[in-house]
Amino acid sequence: MPDDLNWAIGGEAGDGIDSTGKIFAQALSRAGRHVFTSKDFASRIRGGYTAYKIRSSTEQVESVVDRLDILVALTERTIDENLDELHEGSVIIYDGERTEMQDVDVPEGMIGLSVPLQRLAEEAGGAIMQNIVALGAACEVTNFPIENLDSALEKKFGSKGESLVDNNKEAARKGQEFVAEEYDHEFDYDLDTTDNDYVLLNGDEAIGMGAIAAGCRFYAGYPITPATDVMEYLTGRIEQYGGEVVQAEDELSAINMALGAARAGARSMTATSGPGIDLMTETFGLVATSETPLVIADVMRSGPSTGMPTKQEQGDLNMTLYGGHGEIPRFVVAPTNVAECFHKTVEAFNLAEKYQTPVFLLADLSMAVTEQTFEPEEFDMDAVEIDRGKVVDDDEVEAWTDEKDRFQPHFPTADGISPRAFPGTTNAAHMSTGLEHNSLGRRTEDTEVRVEQVDKRNRKVETAKEREDFDVREFGDADSDNLVISWGSNEGAMREALDFLEEDDVSVRFLSVPYIFPRPDLTDDIEAADEVVVVECNANGQFADLLEHDALTRVKRVNKYNGVRFKADELANEIRESLQSEEVTA
């Protein structure tokens, strides 16, 4: 019996794949099991292959692997799509009574369970519950107490009435009973349960939770895959704290609304994906030159243009670093896992206000849609510290006025951080133009003032480097001569890849980098290693380019850009091959 279980359901978009997967993931987490999910879905409402995979264990899991133990196949294509992950002893659950599934050819060595999903669902109250029948069958195969599924069904359908909940419970039991009665087989799976209580959430939800914890009170956005769940999470929740969510008519309107709210003194943010970032770039310059604190979440997907909206990629790094005309100071923070989406969102708001600058929060599709379990203490709202920066009140304004008693919101301080006054502060009325301006915020073409203001804005970044802990997260063998560096969502797969590498006596030191700009100087680490490999989900190695620029040293690269995230065992193989290779490519 494997230490962890890998389960999946697959079919066509519109077949309820996502909701079914979430129900089972919730049931597993409520039974005290850790969960890590993965989705494969088409960018259309109906049609196109869609799958939801769950990896579950009593131990923490942080990645998907190339193994599938139980597959619920709603279409014959589902089996073909997952054939390379199925193995001897894998169980395939399908509805052999459906016309399109009557000729299913179960691969040799695997166990096919033909379960009349639609007929049993109709007996329970409606064909729409056929996926729940399949979950009941999966409970029997894995010896998983179906009562845990009951609680997940109550959470999902409780608001729609008790009768609907009862019908779904009955549908699940019909699936369980059918397998028990019709298949006299000892399956190789036996799911242990624990008394642990875990929080299950995805990266977008964690960003939304972090925003609320950080004191965000205004969100403006336009729906775009895969960032939409940030707005959906905040809607109905932020209002409980006196906040507001606005769905704008487009991305340009969204960032302009967010900018306006931030100027008014509210902690404000917007979230989008690559095409939306393109549209927001014009206003991004205004945010920076007006020195307005604003958090902009970029949940990356495959590009360029509209690319592959529902596929994974880390291709926007250069856009967040260099986007916008002119030279614009900004921070770029990249969470490394779902929990870090919460913590780094809080940090992004603090950085934005402490240094009065825009902050990019750089996540990606694989992290955004992945549900993962964590201890409840991981998200301690009471432990969140809020720093609003150099805000002056009525009594402090006088220290920042000129000889005519005019407030100077862009005063060229030694650290680059000017005083900030919220609207309504006595004697602090001011405006900031998007044109180059003087300390009062009024336009100027004076060459000395121009240099003074540019240098002032850039000094904030240098000040942040001195005051903040822009460090890496380190794993693996600290004494190894093999160094792997990555950023963003690759951390979980790489951490588990370390175990696979250790089994083959390959030692690796792994540095996971959550800060893209300003970023830690890894020159000494790179120079001390015999082999350096940089892992990222893009074609050109955008982060590897940065490291080579910093250290003036060539590095090896492991890149994946087919729209699918790294798997732990796959990544271990790639790292092993790269370490053995003599070739270093630019």
How is the main sheet built? 7 strands, mixed
Total DSSP helices? 18
Order the strands across the largest sheet as they lie in space. Answer: 9-8-10-11-13-12-18
Low-confidence stretches: none
- Beta-strand share of residues: 15-25%
Count the E strands: 20
In whole angstroms, the N-to-C terminal distance is 44 Å
| Overall pLDDT | 95
**Percent of residues in helices:** 25-40%
Indicate the radius of gyration in whole angstroms: 26 Å
Notes on the structure:
This protein has helices at residues 17-30, 76-81, 117-124, 130-142, 146-157, 162-182, 203-213, 228-234, 251-263, 274-289, 317-322, 338-355, 365-368, 447-467, 491-503, 523-528, 542-551, 568-580, and strands at residues 5-12, 34-40, 49-57, 68-73, 86-94, 111-114, 199-201, 216-221, 244-247, 267-272, 294-300, 331-333, 358-364, 372-374, 473-476, 482-487, 509-513, 515-517, 531-536, 556-559. It has 586 residues and is α/β, with parallel strands linked by helices. It has a 7-stranded mixed β-sheet, with helices on both faces. A 6-stranded mixed β-sheet has the order 2-3-1-4-5-6. The longest helix is centred in the N-terminal third of the chain and has 21 residues, at 162-182. It is globular and about 90 Å long.
Write the layout of secondary structure elements.
Elements: E1 5-12, H1 17-30, E2 34-40, E3 49-57, E4 68-73, H2 76-81, E5 86-94, E6 111-114, H3 117-124, H4 130-142, H5 146-157, H6 162-182, E7 199-201, H7 203-213, E8 216-221, H8 228-234, E9 244-247, H9 251-263, E10 267-272, H10 274-289, E11 294-300, H11 317-322, E12 331-333, H12 338-355, E13 358-364, H13 365-368, E14 372-374, H14 447-467, E15 473-476, E16 482-487, H15 491-503, E17 509-513, E18 515-517, H16 523-528, E19 531-536, H17 542-551, E20 556-559, H18 568-580
Parallel strand pairs: 1-4, 4-5, 5-6, 8-9, 8-10, 10-11, 11-13, 12-13, 16-17, 16-19, 19-20
Antiparallel strand pairs: 1-3, 2-3, 7-14, 12-18, 15-17
